[in-house]
Sequence to fold (1512 residues):
Amino acid sequence: MRKRKELRHTYGFDDVALVPGDVTINPEQTDVSLTIGEHKLELPILASAMDGVVDPKFAVALGKMGGLAVLNLDGVQTRYENPDEVLQAISEASPEKVTSIIQQAYEEPVKEKLVGQRIKAIKDGGVVCAASVTPANTKKMAPIAIEAGLDILVVASTVTTARHISKSYRGLIFSELCEQISVPVIVGNCVSYSAAMELMKTGIAGFLVGVGPGAACTTREVLGVGVPQVSATMDCAAARDDYLDETGKYVTLITDGGLRTGGDICKSFASGADGVMMGSPFARTAEGPGRGCHWGMATPDKNLPRGTRIRVGIGVDLDHLLFGPTSMTDGTENLVGALKTCMGVCGARNIKEMHNTEVVVAMSIKTEGKLWQLAGLH
Amino acid sequence: MRKRKELRHTYGFDDVALVPGDVTINPEQTDVSLTIGEHKLELPILASAMDGVVDPKFAVALGKMGGLAVLNLDGVQTRYENPDEVLQAISEASPEKVTSIIQQAYEEPVKEKLVGQRIKAIKDGGVVCAASVTPANTKKMAPIAIEAGLDILVVASTVTTARHISKSYRGLIFSELCEQISVPVIVGNCVSYSAAMELMKTGIAGFLVGVGPGAACTTREVLGVGVPQVSATMDCAAARDDYLDETGKYVTLITDGGLRTGGDICKSFASGADGVMMGSPFARTAEGPGRGCHWGMATPDKNLPRGTRIRVGIGVDLDHLLFGPTSMTDGTENLVGALKTCMGVCGARNIKEMHNTEVVVAMSIKTEGKLWQLAGLH
Amino acid sequence: MRKRKELRHTYGFDDVALVPGDVTINPEQTDVSLTIGEHKLELPILASAMDGVVDPKFAVALGKMGGLAVLNLDGVQTRYENPDEVLQAISEASPEKVTSIIQQAYEEPVKEKLVGQRIKAIKDGGVVCAASVTPANTKKMAPIAIEAGLDILVVASTVTTARHISKSYRGLIFSELCEQISVPVIVGNCVSYSAAMELMKTGIAGFLVGVGPGAACTTREVLGVGVPQVSATMDCAAARDDYLDETGKYVTLITDGGLRTGGDICKSFASGADGVMMGSPFARTAEGPGRGCHWGMATPDKNLPRGTRIRVGIGVDLDHLLFGPTSMTDGTENLVGALKTCMGVCGARNIKEMHNTEVVVAMSIKTEGKLWQLAGLH
Amino acid sequence: MRKRKELRHTYGFDDVALVPGDVTINPEQTDVSLTIGEHKLELPILASAMDGVVDPKFAVALGKMGGLAVLNLDGVQTRYENPDEVLQAISEASPEKVTSIIQQAYEEPVKEKLVGQRIKAIKDGGVVCAASVTPANTKKMAPIAIEAGLDILVVASTVTTARHISKSYRGLIFSELCEQISVPVIVGNCVSYSAAMELMKTGIAGFLVGVGPGAACTTREVLGVGVPQVSATMDCAAARDDYLDETGKYVTLITDGGLRTGGDICKSFASGADGVMMGSPFARTAEGPGRGCHWGMATPDKNLPRGTRIRVGIGVDLDHLLFGPTSMTDGTENLVGALKTCMGVCGARNIKEMHNTEVVVAMSIKTEGKLWQLAGLH
Fold:
C-alpha cells in the first residue's frame, strides 16, 4: 500500500498569536520604515490597487503620511474621464444587481491618455507614485506610465508565475521586463516557496503574497484555491531569505489581502513580511474613493466573477486610521500605534527584528472571537 | 499498558485549499475530458442517480453538453407510468410528512417494461446512456437495460463491497457480472483503500467514492459511518494508482456526493478523482425533474430512512450552471469555467496533471465561511 | 529547559466517524446480545439510573424488549411513597426555580421499605432487575435490595475509584463487597486506563465509562473534569483487554452518557464498548417517568449542583425508539436497526467484531452538523 | 529549501479537560492554601487590580474570607477623593461613549496622600494588604505605600520583562527594587518560560501569568499578542520548577486573567498555577465597586486603548461566589467548593498535588459549549 499523503496544515491570522519577547522596548524607539528599490517609505503599509480604495487624491494623502497607495491602471480611473459617476452607481446598486453592474462598468475600454493624467496627478502631489497593471496589458501600459513619471510598477493578477503557458499569445517575460524598464517592479500574487523563488530570479524588486484571503475575494469558494496568509507569508519569507543567502539580493515581501486589524498587521510582520498591503481598512476612510464600498480585481470578470462589492461604510479619517488617537478597542484604528506597541512588547527595534517574534497556533482565540462577533456580543 | 490507538485525521472539502502551481496555463488550453470504458466524455461531471436529479429528458440535456447523467432504475421512473404526479406530490409535501410520503411512494413495484422504455428514451436523444441498479436487483434488471441499449451500468448502494455475507440469499459476484455483460460496470460506493482494491480486482471499469458526505444524506448521523471526501478520494486514488502499477489497468475513480461549488469540484480532482458525481447542483436547474427538491436512495427505506428531501429551489439553467456566464460569486455557477480557471492557476493541462496539485489543510477558511453563511453575511 | 508537556488529544462522538469494512453483512444476521455475569441480554442497551428515565414500570417495559433499566435507589422512587407528585412538580417548575426545587425534593430521606417494594415490582414483571446505589450508602442498601430479589448491583458516583481517602469515614472496599454479595457488581464512573484497571482487580463484573459527557451534566463546566467518550471508551477498553490477557476474565465495559443518536451508539461499540447506557433518548419515550424531563445524580447536590433539568419532550414509543420503523432521519429513532445496519456495512457479525471497526477523526462532520442544527437548517 | 517552521500549538481553558485520578479524596480534607512571602492565605484566589473590581472595602471583605484583593494605586481610588462619582459615571455611560469617558477620567493625576489613605483603610480592616503600581511609577509610589503599611507590592503592565530598553528614561531594575524594599514583590505579566526565568532571577516573590486572555482585554485583537492561559501557565510553571531545582527557591506563579468558572480555576491549578487572579467574577459581586461593570488597566490609554468596559451585572454575594451554596449549574458560583470537589475527584490533597493532574485536549467540549451558549440553549 502506498504511503498515505500527509497534508500540511496552514494557518491564517485568526489561527495564531504572538508571544511577547524577553526584552521590551519603548514603542517610540521602534523604526517601521520600508525600502522598495531606492524609495524609503516611513510606513510599511501599502493601499491595494482597487478602485474603491485608491484614486489619485487618496494616493497623495497616504503618501504624505508615509505610506504608499497603488493606483489600478486597469480600472475606472483610466476607463472614465469622470470616474465619480460610475463609483457612485456601484455604491448605490442593490446587492442582487451589483455584480452585473460592475461587470458592465468594466467593459468600457481603458484610455491611454487617462493613464498619463492619473500618474501626473499623483506626482504633482509630491509623493512616490506606484501603479498596477495586469500581466496581459503590461507591455502596452508600462511605458506610458513610466513616461508620465511612475516610480514603482506593480504587475498583478490573482496568481502570477514566472512561467505562463499559452498557445494564443506570448506571455510576459518578467526578466525581460525588469531589464527593459527603469523603475523597480513588484509582481504578484504568489503564495508558495517555489513560485516566489522563480519570480525573484527574474530580477524583481518585490512581490505580493496572498491568494484568496481578502474579504472582497471569493477565490477560495469559486476555485478552491488559496493559502491562509500566515503560512503563505512564512513560506515566501523562507524563499526570500534563501535567495538573499544565495545572491546577496534582498527582495521585498509584501503580504497582500485579508488584513483587517492592527493585530493582523503585527502577525504579518512576525511571519516575515517587509510590508503589508490592505484594501478594506482604507476603503473605510473618508479619503477613500469608494463611498464606503470596495471590490476586487476579479469581480468584473465577465464569465466567472470572484469576489463581490463589500460595503464597509465610512468610519474614520485616514490620519486616525494610521496614527490614532482612538476610542476603538477592536484593533481597527491607530494601526501604526498598534504596530509600534506590539514591536515594543516583542522587543523588536525594526521590522527585520520583528521577523524573529515567536508565532504560536492558538485556535481558541479565533473561534471565540468569531463567535462573539457573530453573536454581536463583542 | 497497550499502546494507545492513534486515530487518523480525515478531511473534507471545507477543511482544505489548493496551492497554485509554479506554472500557470491559459484556461482555454486545458482538457477536462473523462474516459469510461470506450466512452469519452467532454466533461468529467456525472449527475447522481437520484429521482429529483435525473429523468430521461435531463439525461439527454446533460449528455448533449458533454456530461453524463445516471438514471435510477430503482426509482419513480420505473415504478410509475407517469412519474410526474408522484414527483409533484413529494415536492409539495410538508417537512413533517415528506419522509413517510416518500416511503409510501416507493412501495409501488418496479415495472420491467418501464426500464426498457426509459433507457430507449435516453438513447433516442443521441447521448451515452448510463443507469443504476442496486446489488440486489442487478441480476434481474441489468439484462433488460442492456437489451434496451444501455451503455454504462452503475451498481450502487450506500456501501458496496466485493464480499457480501448473507445466509438468506446468494450475493452478487461482481467478477461474474463483469465477465457476463457487454458494457462497462461502475460500482459504489466505497471510501477505503482496501475496499476499492478488492472492487477493482473484480474487473470493473470504474467506482464511486463517498459514504455519508452528501447534503441529502444523514448516514453519518444514523449509522455513524462516513469518511470526508478529500481523504476518501485520496485513499481510493492511492489504490487506483497501485492497481495500475500492478496490472497496467486504469480504473476510473468518481468522487460522488457532498460537492456544492466549483471549489469542491477542483478539490476533488486535486485529491485524485477522474470524475465527479453531483446531486444538489443539478437539482437546482430548470431542467431537473425534482421541482427544486431532491432526496437520496436510502430515504425511502421503510424501517430506517437516511437522508431526507432537501429543498434547493430552482435557480439556474443547466447551461449556465456548467458554462456561465454568471453574476454569482459564491462558486455555485459556471462550474466548468471554475475548473478550467483553477487548472490554469494550478498549471494542470488535464485532469491527470491536476492530481499533482498540492492540497493543504486550512481550517480557518472553512469555519469562517460557515459562520458567515450562518450569519447571512456572505 | 524542561521538555514541554505534549497534551494528548481526546475525541468525542461528534469528532469521529466510522469507516465501512471490506466485507458487508446482511444486518439481520448480526448478533447484538450482551452478557453481564450470568445474565444474557438480547440488547446491549441500558437505561440510566436517573429519576426522569427509570421507574419500575419502565424497567419492566425495557426488560421485556431485551434491554436493561437501572433503578436509582437513592432517588424519588425510594424517598416518596407516591413519587408521581414530585415528578410532576419538577416537570412543571420554571427554569429559574427548577434546581432549587430539585435540591429540596431530595432532602426527603430514603425509606428502606420502599427499596424492597420497588425491586419486587420489577421482579414481578418477569425481567432482570438492576438498581444503583452510591458508594456511601452501598453497605446499607445493597443487602436490602438483594434480599428483595435484585439481580445486578450498580455502585455509581460521578467519579469512582478503587481507593478513596477520607478521615471521617471508612470508604467502601469493592473487593470486600464483591466477595460478600451474591450478585454481579457494576461500578462507575471512570474514564482512564489505570482507574479502570484498579477497579477490575477488585472482582467487579462490569464498569461504567464516562465523566462529564451527558446533556444533563455540567461537570466539565463546574469542575473542569471530563474526557470525551470515544477516547475514554478506547482507553478503558485497552485496560479491559489487557486485564483479560493477564487473568482470563472478561469484564463488561458500558459506555455511559452523552449518547443521543444511533450514530453515537455505533461509535461507542467501534471504540470498544460492550454495552451502552443512555438517559436522554429514554426520557423522550412515552413510557418514561419524567414527563419529558430528566436530570442527573449530581443535580440535587445542596452546595454544588452539576447538571440541570433538561426538557426533552415526549416524542416516541419505547418500541419505536428501539426498533422503528421510523420516518425520522436524524438518527434519533430505530436505534437497534441503526446498530444492526451499521454492523452490516462494517462487516461485524457481533459486538466483539464491531470493536475492530476503524475510527477516524473527522472534524468537519461535527462542526457542520452543529452549525446547521444551530441555524435550524437540518 | 529552508526547513518549514513548525508552529507550536497552544491551548486555553475551553480547549482542555482534566482527567480524574486513580484515587479519590474527601473534598473536606483538601488544603487550598497559598503562601506569598511570609503571608499564608487560606484561599489561592486573588482579585485583579482593576477599578471595577477592588476598592478598600472590597479588599477587606475578600481578605476576611481568606483571599487577597490587589488595589490599583494608579486608578480612580488614588486620583479622586470621592471615586464613587466617577465609578457611577462610567457604569452609566453608553457603549459608544464609554471608552472616551474612561480615557478622560484617568487624566486626573494621582494624589500621593490618597495612596496612603487607601492602604491604611485596608490595613485597618485587619487583613493582608496588596496593591499594584506600574513599572513607570514604582519608584515614586512604592515607598509611600510601604510606609502606609503595604504587605505585598505588585508591579504590573500588559507585558513586563526584566530588561526594558528606552533611550528617554532609565527603566525599573527589579533586582534593585527587590533588594531595597522590605515587602515581597510580585511582577507581571509574562507568558513564556524565558521571560519568567529572567524575572525570577531578580529576586521576586511571585509573578503573574497572562497576556491577552481576559474578557475585558482586547490585546490580542489590537496587538496580535497573547498566549492562551493553559499553555502560558504550563510554560511558566516549567520555568518555576527549573528555577526551584537550580536555586532551592520557590517563586509563586499566579495565573491572571480569562478565568470565568470553577472549571477554569481547576484547570489553572492542574496546569501548574499556585494561585489565580480574577476580575470578572468579582466584578459581579454585590461587594464590588464597579456597579456591575469592569475594565482593564490598558483601557484608559489615550492613543491605543485595549479592552473596554464589560457590563457583567450584579449577580451574587461574595460569600456565595466563593463558598456557595448555589443553585447555578454553570460553574459561576461556589468556586472554592468546585475547586475542592475537583481536587477530590483528581486525588489531590493540596495545590501542589493538583499540579500532577492529567490535562487533555478536548476540542469538542469547547465548541459545543460555545455554540450552545450562542444559541441561548444552555
About this structure: Chains D and B do not touch (no CB pair under 8 Å). Chain D has one domain: 13-375. Residues 366-378 of chain D have pLDDT under 50 and may be disordered.
